[in-house]
C-alpha cells in the first residue's frame, strides 16, 4: 500500500467516525473535527465525547492497518500527514506491533476504583440510610461504574481482535 492510499484510507475512516462527515475540516489538526462542534486545536481530549471519538478512531486505524500504536503514540495530536507517516512506520515494525499487543493482553486489570466506589456507596447507605440522597448517589455512581467497566471491556475486545489479526499474518 502506498502512502497516498494509506492517507486516503485514513481520511475515509475519519469521515466514517465523524459526527458530521460532510463538514469542512483542517488537515493540520483534523482529529479535533471528530466531534461537532469541533474542538479548538489539540483539545479533543478535554471532553468525554471527544475522548470516546478519538479512541474509536485510533482503534479503527489499528484494526484496519493491523498495527499497534504505543501508549505515547495514542496520546499525541496528529495532522493528516503526521498520522500517515506514523501508520507507515508502524506497518514496517511488524515485530514491534506483536510485542505491543502481547504486552496489552498480558496486563492485568485492576478494579480499585470500582471497589472504592462501591465501598463509598455502602458507607453512604450505612450513614444516611435509604433516602433520596442515597438513591441519587447510587444512580450516579452506578453509571460511573458502568462507564468504567464498559470502557475496560471494549478495550479488551479490541485488543483481542487486533491480536488475532496481527498474529494471523504470521
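Sequence proposed for the structure above (170 residues):
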Amino acid at each position: 500500500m502506498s502512502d497516498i492510499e494509506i492517507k486516503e484510507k485514513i481520511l475515509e475512516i475519519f469521515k466514517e467516525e465523524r459526527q458530521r462527515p460532510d463538514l469542512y475540516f483542517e488537515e493540520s489538526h483534523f482529529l479535533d473535527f471528530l466531534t461537532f462542534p469541533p474542538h479548538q486545536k489539540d483539545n479533543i481530549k478535554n471532553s468525554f465525547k471527544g475522548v470516546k471519538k478519538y479512541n474509536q478512531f485510533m482503534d479503527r486505524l489499528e484494526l484496519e492497518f493491523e498495527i499497534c500504536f504505543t501508549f505515547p503514540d495514542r496520546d499525541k495530536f496528529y495532522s493528516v500527514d503526521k498520522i500517515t507517516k506514523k501508520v507507515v512506520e508502524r506497518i514496517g515494525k511488524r515485530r514491534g506491533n506483536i510485542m505491543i499487543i502481547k504486552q496489552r493482553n498480558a496486563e492485568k486489570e485492576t478494579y480499585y476504583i470500582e471497589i472504592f466506589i462501591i465501598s463509598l456507596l455502602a458507607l453512604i447507605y450505612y450513614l444516611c440510610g435509604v433516602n433520596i440522597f442515597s438513591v441519587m448517589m447510587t444512580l450516579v455512581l452506578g453509571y460511573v461504574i458502568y462507564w468504567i467497566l464498559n470502557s475496560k471491556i471494549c478495550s479488551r475486545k479490541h485488543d483481542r481482535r487486533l491480536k488475532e489479526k496481527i498474529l494471523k499474518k504470521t
